[in-house]
């Protein structure tokens, strides 16, 4: 008796039991594959994250060492007068044979201080008043555009490039109050930190220096 004939002779209850059993087997197989996948995935993630944490500690220790050693060299360079005025802590040193060199760069970081919060509140109130006075399509478009330029980035800070577009809208608003608010934004954008970067180089046979890359994404 072939399968088709066997099924034809089965009762409804028997067919339901067979189908239920088949579904149970399929679910068990699916669950097993899921567990195997999740186990393999977790093993890979844990292994790589563990190694990343180890390398992170190594790089942190190296950066701290570079800070100390290069600061020492920088002080020596100041004693010998081997520095350009206004270098702000940035310099490059080479080995005597010129095969290796290190560059340290100090870059001033700028951002908006607490005055920007005041300017932002003033601007929001100004825009609300602006749109109420005009109550037209053009006014609402300018309002939406200006508000979109106050969006904050992933760090919760105002984006200077977006705020700069607000500066360019002064002529469109043509209002002393708006200009005063923009002036407050400009005043609030100040230097607030210094970032230090290190680069390490090795001279190649062609005479060019090749960066010893430490950034994982560039290896």
Key words describing this protein structure:
219 residues, four-stranded antiparallel β-sheet, 7 helices, 61% helix, 16% strand
Structure description:
The protein has helices spanning about 5-10, 10-80, 115-135, 135-150, 160-165, 170-175, 175-190; strands at about 90-95, 100-110, 190-205, 210. Helix 3 runs antiparallel to helix 4 (about 135-150) and helix 3 (about 115-135) runs antiparallel to helix 7 (about 175-190). The protein has about 220 residues and is α+β, with helices and mostly antiparallel strands. About 60% of the residues lie in helices and about 15% in strands. It has 7 helices and 4 strands. A 4-stranded antiparallel beta sheet has the order 1-2-3-4. The mean pLDDT is about 85. The chain starts with a helix and ends in an 8-residue tail after the last strand.
> What's the assembly state of these chains?
single chain
Reported for the largest beta sheet, the result is:
4 strands, antiparallel
What helical percentage do the residues reach?
55-70%
- Order of secondary-structure elements: HHEEHHHHHEE
Produce the secondary structure layout.
Layout: H1 3-9, H2 12-80, E1 91-94, E2 100-112, H3 114-134, H4 137-148, H5 160-167, H6 170-173, H7 176-188, E3 189-203, E4 209-211
Helix pairs in contact: 3-4, 3-7
In short:
The protein has 219 residues and is of the alpha+beta class. It has seven helices and four strands, in the order ααββαααααββ. The model has no long low-confidence stretch (mean pLDDT 87).
